[in-house]
Amino acid sequence: MNDMTPPVAAREHTVESFTREFLRELNFGRGVDLDRASANDKYMALARTVRHYLMTGWLETLRNQYRDQAKVVAYLSAEFLLGRQLDNNLLTSNLEGIARESLDQLGISLDDLREVEIEPGLGNGGLGRLAACFIDSLATLDVPCIGYGIRYEYGIFKQAFVDGHQVEKPDTWLALGSPWEFPHPENAVTVGFGGHVEDVTDEDGVKRRDWVPASVVNGVPYNYMVPGYGTNRVNTLRLWSARAPKAFNLQVFNEGGYEEAVKNQTFAENISKVLYPEDSTPQGKELRLQQQYFFVACSIADFLCNVLPQDFDLHRLPDRITWQLNDTHPVIAVPELMRQLVDLRGWTWEDAWGVTQKVFAYTCHTLLPEALEVWPVDLLGKLLPRHLEIIYRINELFLEELRDTYPGDELKVRHMSIIAEHPVRAVRMAHLATVAGFKVNGVAALHSELLRDKVLSDFAQLWPEKFTNVTNGVTPRRFVRIANPSMSGLVTEAIGDGWIKDLSQLSRLEPLAEDAEFRRRFRDIKAANKVEFARVLKERDGIEIAGDAMVDAMVKRLHEYKRQTLKLLHIVSLYQRIGSGALPLESVTPRTFVFGAKAAPGYALAKQIIALINAVGSTINADASLEGRLKVAFPANYNVTLAEKLIPAADLSEQISLAGKEASGTGNMKFALNGALTIGTDDGANVEIRELVGDENFFLFGMSEPEVADLEASGYSPEAVYASDPDLKAAIDLISSGAFSGGDRTLHEPVIAALLGEDRFMALADFRSYVDAQDRVEAYYGDFEAWSRSAILNVARSGFFSSDRSMVDYMDRIWGAKPVKQNF
Ligand code: OX2
């Protein structure tokens, strides 16, 4: 890049200029005139117009970065659950008003065009959405960052319900093209797979190991703008798409071997074909390991060869970069960097390891033992033979160090080894990340404590300084400013708009919780948001809900530990008690129970739970006597777009995992920031939410983590709980009787059997306490002034949960990277 090239001309922020750009894009970019343009044409032209306005910032950010060589954060993540881009890009380019007016003049509705965008669902849930929030915050804070991931051709599956059962359909998000991406096939990176390792001696007589892969795949980078809010900085997200280096074999094709001719192409392109629909449990799939290595190898090669200047001395790498490992998915980056330095650049092992140990930091997102990734050495060795050798060597040296520190303690050595011996020989990726990383962090205070004291306790004893916490956060731009424009307007009117970049300023709303007029306006906005949510549900799903009932929301992946079954038992119990006359119908607050949840396709029990929720929902919704009182709404295919409608409308946020199982949760933060009250256990970030918003503004229930551990140790019997609680027994018996399955007693039996048999996540044990807390919810909701006061205090006291704050914590505690202001 030449410092003399003039900066690309900034577009003028006027309606006329915007209209000119838009029409030019429509005519010259799409080749259509306004009269004949389809909605997609108009959306594409609009998106490209917005892109132009961000371009100066993007190119200048790149140019400045190249010149200053400031320290960069490379966020390595197999998932980025971005959500729709248009609104965020309109906001950050400061074009919201201008675009609306320009389109209005052309007789086009901006709101209609928004609906055209298909969100890129390149993530499963919290982990992927967190990555998206983090890159948004880093850009906003002016921190140099590159996000590295995979451009899946198909994102998280599209969920449909057939007779209440989940059916998965491919997510064809690219079918109409994506206007936000910049492909660069000329910068493709080559990645090897399989083959063998040889000893070679180079001209200087130096011996080294040389990996000869059996096949190679090209990684084509697709760049996306990541614009900051209130700054000119536009960072980059680089997602890799896999391609075959040779398109196909023409000779074989001409001889009629059509399938054979494209075999290589199929192998290569399968790698970035589809996102694994898993959340927190790994699927031992070869393709998944291929994906992990693919994007990590592309990203490391890209950074070393394309991002850094050519003459850069890699010994100084730790001054230039931290690779943040988003869970264990990218941990194969560790042996890959070692290979780059030792095999390809001839470094000594000691030098390479010295640098490697200073550039990786590891974020762990789970506590479930089954979610800690482990790769059988047979598989890893077949796919990446040289990497396995390197891992063995890292482990050998690590175990030597352990034996020095703990002489004779072979049990400890075995526990800590990177290689597990049972049930099969396998690489423990979390151990590899902990050994190689200079920092290991959990994602909420309780989670980091449990990581340190339980899951990785041996490592924490050995290297206490490595372990730290950074509590998760969410971007206030998307989840407050954009999703809840009316509340944002009210807040801005009260305290100015500084909160959008500094969410701690929300605390200035506190006194207004005592202001009756402010409470009334706050309530009116919530009411209007409910009406809007009801409209969306009707249009999107054909589901009709009352516009004024309490909105009680449980939205997250379906997993036993999250305990959708507990919520369901509460609903069934209400229904049963109303039906039996134990609970007078008039005393029940009108409520809509909203569920949103996808189950991993291979997780049979989770799918059965979905079917049961739908069955209970159909029965309750069909019962005319409950009309206007109880309603269950389970829209299929919950995603970021729907979240942005639901969250601002919610009154009650269900965060009811068994204590010690949810690492953090981030939905909990989004709800609190939009004035919903939480009913929750002392788990994950709920703990911090409750501390901040205050006990009186939070409905706590259930066992604490130590109580769970005690009960586990003393022997838990779900049968005994069932037998001792008549309401619980009645609810379960009602399901077993076939009341929700047309008399069929077998249909939902597996769910009941799981609860009465093992009840791994102790839903029954917490049932009574949960129902009591729900009774408190009902009573409190009746006092609408008190409820509004608590809702406002939830907003005012949740500023801590901005992902901007998380990023400042990462900078202070882990990265040492600093903001670099853009001066143009
Ligand atoms: C999720 C965790 O389950 C959730 O608690 C957390 O808020 C989120 O990550 C972001 O940190 N896969 N998904 C997660 O962990 C794993 C593994």
Ligands, ions, cofactors: ligand OX2
Tertiary shape: globular
> What's the average pLDDT?
96
CATH class of the largest domain: Alpha Beta
Give the fraction of residues assigned to helices. Answer: 40-55%
Rg on CA atoms, Å: 27 Å
Structure, briefly:
It contains 34 helices and 25 strands. The chain is an alpha/beta fold and about 800 residues long. Strands 1, 4, 7, 8, 11, 12, 13, 14, 18 and 19 form a 10-stranded mixed β-sheet that branches.
Question: Main attributes?
Answer:
824 residues; ten-stranded mixed beta sheet; globular; alpha/beta; single chain; Rossmann fold; six-stranded parallel beta sheet
Describe the 3D structure.
Helix 12 (333-342) crosses helix 15 (385-405) and helix 23 crosses helix 32 (763-782). Helix 23 (564-580) links the parallel strand 20 (550-555) and strand 21. With 824 residues, this protein is an alpha/beta fold. The radius of gyration is 27 Å and the shape is globular. Strands 1, 4, 7, 8, 11, 12, 13, 14, 18 and 19 form a ten-stranded mixed β-sheet that branches. The chain starts with 14 loop residues before the first helix and ends in a 9-residue tail after the last helix. The mean pLDDT is 96. The chain folds into three domains: 15-68 and 93-118, no CATH class; 69-84 and 119-471 and 809-815, Glycogen Phosphorylase B (Rossmann fold), CATH 3.40.50.2000; 476-801, Rossmann fold (3-Layer(aba) Sandwich). It contains 34 helices and 25 strands. The structure holds ligand OX2. Ligand OX2 binds next to helix 6.
